[in-house]
Amino acid sequence: MAQSSKFIPFNQLVRKFIPDGSHVYLEGLLVNRLPMAVIHELIRAKVRNLRVVSAPNGLAIDQLIGAGCVAELEFYFLGFMTQNGFAMMHRFRDAAEQGTIQVKESMGYAICMALRAGAYGIPFMPLPDFRGSDLLSIRNDYQIMQSPYDPNNTVITVPALRPDVLILHAHAADSRGNIFLDEPWTTFTLTTAQACEKVVVTVEDIIESDTLDPSCITIPHFLIDAISQVPYGAAPTALNHRYEVDQAHISVYLEKAKTAEGFDQYRDEYIISCSNHAAFMQKTGFPPPWKPYDSEDSLREGDR
Amino acid sequence: MTRKIVDYEFDELILSTLARQLQDGDRVFTGVASPVQMLATLLAKATHAPNLIYFTILGAINPDPNPRPFSTGDPHLFDCCENAITFPEIFDLANNGRMDVAFLGGVQIDQFGSLNMSIIGKDYNQPKVRLPGGAGGPLMIRTFRRIVSWRPNHSPRNLVEKVPFITSPGWIPAAKGIRNGGPDVIVTDLCVFKLSRENNRIRLESLHRGITLEQVKQQTGFAFEVPNKIPETAPPSKKEINTLSVLIDPDGIRKSLLKPPQ
User: Fold this and answer.
1) How far is B228 from chain A (nearest CA, A)?
2) Are residues A155 and A229 in the same domain?
């Protein structure tokens, strides 16, 4: 079967689908499956004034903020653990302290419920009462409401989130454009895709249609707008069953990004001077190959 | 030969103290940046709480990763789990009273058990220090039955009288109709505090080996109740120490995660 017209060259993905001022949602968590190839391309394309909603994917956000791509950030946690301790996101921190980006702080469940509302096509979602948190004083859009069914039950409402674009890196697409994530439970990724106006995806592999078990399809092709094949598109973060976190390169980044000048050096050396993600891979070396878990090994340990 | 009292390291004491906060059958959640809490949960499950159900932020249920990852977002947690669930579904379960224990930390914790993970300073929009954010804490602190906090670097800067910003609310004095939240236990590198949801007081539960009451008072920014006789934090058992080094953390990542004070 011929490939769907949704497959486009990577250098067109950002330029066509993520213009200045886009409201974007970034998939990935901590050190797992961040869409790093797209992040670097946004920086190369000098995209400006992004409004970003984010899962806790600090590495991606920190780079976008450092490169001046972000006007507004909605988030609930930024940072992650490495073997050297907690990695603080200095570009985010400096920007928030200097007030150069607009910070919309939230919490994980509130963003998830707002995405559910967006996916379900309803204007808002109620959450259990969390009055007492000062988040309610900085988020005027979060309202306190009495349940219409039980006057003793107070809920907090969050307005639906309907970002312009979901940015996602996945394991594979079939030639129709169905997307496959090789993780054990991915239904919320589908919910997020439904909440967003458009979905753009980078994938490791493109496979024949009708070779995916339909129950393994994470996002059906009709919700997808653009796909580009970008091997190692999540590196230096990990991708389940494919490659490990590139701790060494992340350490390089964290050290450089402590200062604005250091970040600029990193940006020039590793992002701008690399014309695409393949060039970035050439420069940094491939991430460590996936080390499969050996259950036999663990049992032996237990018997010792 | 004389029988020796079990000797132990600081990291073993902290992990066993955290593990002992968990009971058999508990449904336990660890969030972002929580490798210490992960090791403690795995230790509890391998010793006194075999029926504990462990939920990670990635959604992996009862993972048994080998080697142990530093990040609770490492996809190896998927590779060795019994089952999985999505992140918001963990909150859904808690809303219906189906979750027992969450490990929640605060860069600052105050006398009301409120956690600050947002800002230090007076102006929220131009803070002196921007902190990483409270993750799921603001609601979890109310919807989980019990909250356990691990607070390393015990100091008056992070155990404060009143946090400048309440990210996750403890108990709120003078607020009517709002359920009390807050940690039930705060384990620091010096001592264990217990918080009572009944009388809203923080009490010193035990001092770690070699730590004095004076030290804790000097290093704590809030007042706390002191029992007549202050016990020493119970040492880890031989079984716990052995389980840690053989089964839970043979690579010894705990040594870099948990360093004794000073």
Assistant:
1) 34
2) no
| pLDDT on residue A215 | 84
Which of A136, A55, A25 lies closest to B59, judged by CA?
A55
| Strand pairing category for A154-159 and A143-146 | antiparallel
Taking the Cβ of residue B57 and every Cβ of chain A, the question of whether any pair is shorter than 8 Å is answered with yes
Q: Is A60 on the interface with B (CB under 8 A)?
A: no
B 87-106 near A (Cβ less than 8 A): 87-89, 91, 95
Nearest to B167 among A33, A135, A298 (CB): A135
Structural domain contains residue B5 = no
Q: Which amino acid is at A254?
A: L
What are the chain A neighbours of B71 within 8 Å (beta carbons)? Answer: 30-31, 80-82, 245
Q: Which residue of B has its CA nearest to A87?
A: B33
Residues A146 and A172 reside in one and the same domain = no
Q: Does A289 touch chain B (CB under 8 A)?
A: no
Segment 134-153 of chain A within 8 Å of chain B by CB: 134-135, 138
d(CA A20, CA A226): 18
pTM across the whole model: 0.95
What is the amino acid identity at position A245? V
CB A147 within 8 A of CB A193: no
Single-letter code of the amino acid located at A87? A
3-state SS class at A83 = coil
CA–CA separation, A293 and B3 (whole Å): 40
CATH of the domain at B224: 3.40.1080.10
Full domain range(s) for residue A142 = 126-159
A70-74, A155-159, A186-190, B179-183: segment of lowest average pLDDT: B179-183
Number of folded domains that form chain A: 2
* CA distances (Å), origin B78, targets B68, B105, B219: 12, 24, 40
| Digit-coded pLDDT (tens) for A153-181 | 999 999 999 999 999 999 999 999 999 99
Check if the beta carbon of residue B223 is closer than 8 Å to that of residue B111: yes
Residues A133 and A179 in one domain: no
